Amino acid sequence: MDTVEALIEQVCRLPLADRQRVVEAVEESLAEDTTPAPEAVAGPYARSLALAGTMHTDFSDVATDKYKHLAEVYVSQSDDT
Fold it and tell me: What is this structure's pTM?
């Protein structure tokens, strides 16, 4: 949530015209929301599950780089023998 708060603080420092463009872009993004309503998916985590896999990130996880990690493990094991 710190990232959202920092973003809001930065937007507040922008000139009025730029703030209006940011607000319009956010409103447009919300209007294009194709996430199914939580009622469409059962359970307490319905909203989170509906959003799963829909966001972009610059970070990768272990599964993304699994071959690199496996190679490191195999190299370290062969060095031990």
Answer: 0.39
Average of pLDDT values for 57-72? Answer: 72
**Cα angle at 28 between 18 and 40, to 5 degrees?**
145
Count of structural domains within the chain: 1
- 52 burial via Cβ count (<10 Å: 0-12, 13-18, 19+): exposed
d(CA 50, CA 70): 32
- Which residues span the domain enclosing 47? 2-80
Q: How confident is residue 13, by pLDDT bands cut at 50, 70 and 90?
A: very high
